[in-house]
Amino acid sequence: MKAVAYRSYGGPEVLEYTDLPEPKVGPDKVLVRVRAAAVNPVDWKVQAGRLDAVMDVQFPVVPGWDVSGTVVRAGADAHEFSEGDEVIGYVRQDWVSNGTFAEYVAAPVRTLAKKPANLSFEQAAGLPLTGLTAYQSLVHALRLGKGETLVVHAAAGGVGSMAVQIARHLGARVIGTASERNHDYLRSLGAEPVTYGEGLADRIRSLAPDGVDAMFDAVGGGVVGETAGVMAADGRTVSIADMGVTELGGRYLFVRPDPADLAALSDLAERGELTVEVAETFPLERAADAQRLSAEGHTRGKIVVTVA
Fold first, then answer.
1. Looking at beta carbons, which pairs linking 42-47 to residues 24 or more positions away fall under 8 Å?
2. 220 and 140 fall within a common domain
């Protein structure tokens, strides 16, 4: 099969468009014909060796954890899916090796859910990692409730925009931090935008003088500490970008594959309550260019690699 892979740590330059054997399909896996795979910052961070201390790697590595595609074959004990099923997945396995930037991926059933029928394969590929990160942060970690006020830092980003939409679905009020050029976008999602920079805490406090109930940090850089004063006495904080949040009484979250959570996201998308914005698509052989664009950090919406 055609795939993009790397044989040593490095930047986009180590990616090769190459031929690799079709992956074996274990009893609890299905073989997915990949139609699209989203690019996430974690892909190029793993590729650069920045998570080597916590993740086992087996070279050559096919990058990519997000996928949308069609089931080709089910393993002996993979009764959840059948040939022809359209699926999405956050295909993070026990070691880093066989990712989704390929024509085929053998995906454990615990990483998959049905694809929302109303989303294109490109849109659907952008849902799993960012959607699960936001969903698990808000629903499981923060236990966000109706009528509460949530601050989302980096609200216009891939994870942040998912968090805004999920919070609104849960009945929460959302204050979202973003650059001014993204304020109209945040308003369209149902958030009240505030601009980054000096005086951020004062701007949030002016919108929520009694304090906010919860904070979700998707940007890091010390923003939780800078805005800690806007929290209500019993406020809760989760960060996906700053492990130091625990020193401030918050929680650090690293997303997990979860079929029930992924099915809930798929259902929200199918009901029109969750949208995925695709910024740009690249063919598989240009995956390195997709990574370079992702690393610039200025793109709103998902960057997606497509497989013909």
1. 42/129, 43/99, 43/291, 43/294, 44/11, 44/12, 44/291, 44/294, 44/295, 46/96, 47/6, 47/9, 47/10, 47/11, 47/14, 47/15, 47/291
2. yes
